User: What shape does this take?
Amino acid sequence: MTETSANLEKAAVASSPIRVMLVDDHAMVRRGLATFLMVFDDLKLVGEAENGAAAINLCAQVLPDVILMDMVMPEMDGAQATHAIRQQFPQVQVLALTSFKEGDQIKNALEAGAIGYLLKNVSADELARAIRSAHSGHVTLSPEAAQSLVETANQPTDTRPDLTERELEVLALMVEGLNNTQIAGRLVVSPSTIKSHVSNILSKLGVTSRTEAASLALRNHIIA
Assistant: This one.
């Protein structure tokens, strides 16, 4: 345990208990978390909700310090609920606690205002430390979540939506190595029209040459 974690635990025990609210659509998960909270004197369960919409209403009633929020739930998911709660109750910290470690899920949770992202296989001591850290305003990410965020950030950007169908056709012929005159003949249009399409393609892909455009198209699987 780091010195910072030890200090957080000492400070937590010395002060009033941290008020914790649980949000999960599975009753057994909530029961397990409730049992876990009873083990720690500095953590106090103040409410449970089975979906995001119920969580917003309950939060207004019990005003917790920290919410353990599942991400995938019916009616309103965790990211939507987190955003609404952080907008209405900025003093309440939200810890995402879920089974999903996909980068998009993590990104959505953090953008919604969650201060941390943990997987449900976290140990009791780790979860308790994360709650204390959240209460103190410190971010906590599980190792899996941090790794997933890095992998998502390193994925090639999908530029296909920015290109029209005609531009995709022209790009495919550029990949084949055809020049403007040859592409114009293949598509039965004027070379000046193809020149305009090529200029648009280079601009949208953020490249300066036909070779770069063809390379990017192949690397990012823009051309089927």
About this structure: The mean pLDDT is 88. The first helix runs from residue 3 to 14. The beta strands are 18-23, 43-49, 66-69, 93-98, 116-119, 140-141.
